[in-house]
Amino acid sequence: MTSSLDTTHEPTRLAINTPHRFYRGGERILAFRGLAVPEGFDGHRPEDWIASTTRLFAEGGDGITRLPDGSDLPGALAAEPTAWLGAEHVEAHGVVPGLLTKLLDSGERLPVHSHPDRSFAKAHLHCDNGKTEAWIVLEAEPGATVWLGFREEVDPDTLAELVEAQDDRLLAALNPVQVQRGDAVLVPGGQPHAIGEGILLLELQEPTDLSVMLEHERFGLEEAHAFLGLDRPLALRSVDHGPLTPSALEDLRCRWTDVKGVGPALPTGAEAYFRAQVVRPTGPSPAASVTAPAGFAVTVVVEGRGTLATEYGAASGAPIDIACGDVLLVPHGAGGVRVTGDVTVIRCMPPAGTTVA
Ligand SMILES: [Zn+2]
Q: InterPro entries attached here (predicted)?
């Protein structure tokens, strides 16, 4: 490691990190990030893995974030864990962020799938994390839809039959939810779901790539990868058979655009897994400013422009210019963060240190 201690006080701009995926998308990510579509773009770069210490389960195993100095993020964290993550976090969670953040652009509807919850992952996959995830909708085509949870209870034999048939009945069995910019949806481990075409999400997840691909045939996925290498009946036991009622669904939704000042972007049920915090200065622009507490935070500018200053390090004396589409990793050691201007930032953070995984 060549980085000096000072670098752990500095917000670090992160380059795009888009591994090849089986489904289409990526142009909305490039546009959001202010990048041109590169020549020869293969159209299968629908996910930008931000501050990632996670590798793809299949499809080549890419995904780890590299910092501007060429080091990889896991190595940088291991070299200076307290400065990056804070003592409380390291005590509770170890030298891992405990969080995977992505931008996701659905260039086509994603397959119906689910992710194991923590207890299933511990029991059958030798993994402490399942994959509860959450979607913060940044852009959506008119009428864009996501699907979440079975509308009616689906018994194990029926689920096995639907998965065997690989037809449209799986999607039809889920609750459709129309979404627009400003929506946020929590997707608990076990709940079957799908993301419709035409949506740009900021997605928070437990840091695994464990998916049960209930629909796999039409996307050309191999069965061994579709079911985590488990026997199919065992893999299907990780799926919540429902029903996910309208009131339960309502508890999984909120509006991040309603927050003024500093406040949560996600429903309260997310807090055991990760936190997303909206930071939006209020008052007369452009002088308005607001301060958020110290913390390891994937910081995504989702609207407008302004500046970001930190309590410690170079950015304490010389605020950094920020604009929509910027992605910065802010270490805990940078201290409190002051955001100024007509700008909205979402800070994606691990669960609080006291919530032991
Ligand atoms: Zn998912």
A: RmlC-like_jellyroll (IPR014710), RmlC_Cupin_sf (IPR011051)
